[in-house]
Amino acid sequence: MALTRFIHQETVLGFAKDLRDYPTTMPGGVERDTNKRVLRARCFSKKLLHALHPKPVHAVAVSNAQRQIGPLHQGRVDRLIVRRAIEVKMPDHDLDCLIIGGGPAGLTAAVYLARYHRRVAVVDSGVSRAGLIPESHNYPGFPDGISGNQLLLSLRAQAAHYGVRVVSGTVTALQRRKPGFCATFDGEELPARFVLLATGIVDKHPSMEGLDAAVADGLVRYCPVCDAYEATDKKIAVFGSGSDAASKAKFLRGYSADVTWLRPSGDDASADDIESLAEASIDIIDAVQELGRSGAGIQAAAAGRVHHFDLVYPALGCDVRSGMATQLGAEANDVGCLKVDEYQRTTVEGLYAAGDVVSDLHQIAVATGHAAIAATHIHKSLPAGLRAAPDYAVTAG
Ligand SMILES: Cc1cc2nc3c(=O)[nH]c(=O)nc-3n(C[C@H](O)[C@H](O)[C@H](O)COP(=O)(O)OP(=O)(O)OC[C@H]3O[C@@H](n4cnc5c(N)ncnc54)[C@H](O)[C@@H]3O)c2cc1C
Questions:
Q1: In the prediction, which pLDDT does 183 show?
Q2: pLDDT (0 to 100) of residue 165
Q3: Cβ–Cβ < 8 Å for 125, 200
């Protein structure tokens, strides 16, 4: 896959006096528009612009494209006029910012950076936690709720509106390159001045048949902050070990008088935890072997008995997708969430992080807030982008 997919946030239009003998598609993503007599260069290079006109123009190289535009300027460019070249000042790197992860955090940052006229690309492996949300009722602005997938689609559409490319794939490695970074993606190296890591977390799931459908139906839930309100006065179970599970059960007790802690075999809960749950009138069932679905609810088998609940919150922890950053030396807490400062900067210079990969409060509103802060700081840290006057025109000499 060619890097040129990433680097044409702004389109250069080359007008030709006579385009009839140009093919409709040319190397380097250059296309001829038959009706409008326009050459659209999806990416462009200094070499091309110099070929179009010997004087400097207010546009700057996109170096990776150079190898692809050769045939366009061989012998015929003197017939072209550059009508409009858009200033883009980033001589050292192709991208101002590479965003790894296209969930709410990554897509929000992309919208902000694109609206700052920065060159930005998002690489996304397509497993956003938000995609698991059947319907969110706590994300501001949607009084009737919105599904996670609908929100992701809207964010993608908003990013696309500003020319952001969201490319499907997985960034497999990130290396320092002074200044900036080089990401490995799809066998290519992708250089960027700044990187925003928005890779999120992966919940640890209980082993249970039909788990995906149970999550979609709201019977298995991961986030009481998100949706405990919708579980008000229901028969709620929490499945997991230790203090995290105990505190989740206590939190949920504020929503229902009927909360049960399902402890797997081998749980090492402290006496304090057990006592505090007893004080809050939370039942405890020990040695729970398995969870399953029972009609419109959930069942748990323990000591030869089957217990029924309206829904269950697993409290099994998560894997934080912060490995790429910690390999570069970024500091993380004991769970793996990246440490950041008030501008979302990790402890590695130029590397920012936003969303679940950072926060303990795993919320869309938090993720998008992080993203706005990070994107704005990245923008201010880049060289000023001095915009050329519109309709800058040069006639080929
Ligand atoms: C069932 C459920 C219900 C929830 N309900 C709510 C709710 O009602 N309200 C609320 O505020 N929050 C809710 N949440 C939490 C919310 O989904 C997260 O807080 C939010 O998705 C975090 O956004 P993010 O962008 O940080 O991470 P994510 O949305 O997880 O996105 C991370 C993205 O990074 C990509 N990625 C990871 N590694 C790579 C890589 N190496 N290369 C390329 N891409 C990569 C992943 O594919 C993914 O698309 C819920 C979560 C769950 C599981």
A1: 94
A2: 81
A3: no
Q: Find residue 306's DSSP bridge partners.
A: 301
Which ligand 1 atom is nearest residue 200's CA? 27
| 3-state class (DSSP) for residue 28 | helix
Cα 198 to averaged position of ligand 1 atoms, centre (Å): 9
Provide residues with CB under 6 Å of ligand 1: 100-106, 123-130, 132-133, 136, 138-139, 170-171, 198-200, 203, 215, 222-223, 226-227, 321, 355-356, 362-365, 367
- Ligand 1 center to residue 130 CA distance, Å? 4
Secondary structure (3-state) at 263: strand
Q: What is the pLDDT of residue 358?
A: 98
Predicted pLDDT at 25: 54
Ligand 1 geometric centre to CA of 242 (Å): 25
Neighbours of 358 (CB within 10 A): 30
Say which DSSP state 220 is in.
B
Q: How far is CA 346 from the centre of its chain?
A: 17
Orientation angle between helical segments 104-115 and 148-161, nearest 10 degrees:
20
Which own/partner pairs from 14-20 qualify as long-range (CB within 8 Å, at least 24 positions apart)?
14/38, 14/39, 14/40, 14/41, 14/52, 14/80, 14/81, 14/82, 14/83, 15/39, 15/80, 15/81, 15/82, 15/83, 16/79, 16/80, 16/81, 17/79, 17/80, 17/81, 18/79
- Which residues, given as ranges, of the chain have pLDDT below 50? 1-19, 21, 26-29, 35-38, 42-93, 392-397
Helix H or strand E encompassing 122 = strand 120-124
Alpha helices in 235-282 (DSSP H): 242-253, 271-279
CA torsion 347→349→350→351, rounded to 10°? -30
- Sign of the C-alpha dihedral computed for residues 337, 342, 344 and 346 taken in this order: negative
pLDDT at 298 (0 to 100) = 97
> Which ligand 1 atom is nearest residue 130's CA?
17
Length of the chain (residues): 397
User: pLDDT tens digit string along 44-70?
Assistant: 444 444 444 333 332 222 222 322 232
Tell me how far the alpha carbon of residue 318 lies from the centroid of ligand 1, in angstroms. Answer: 12
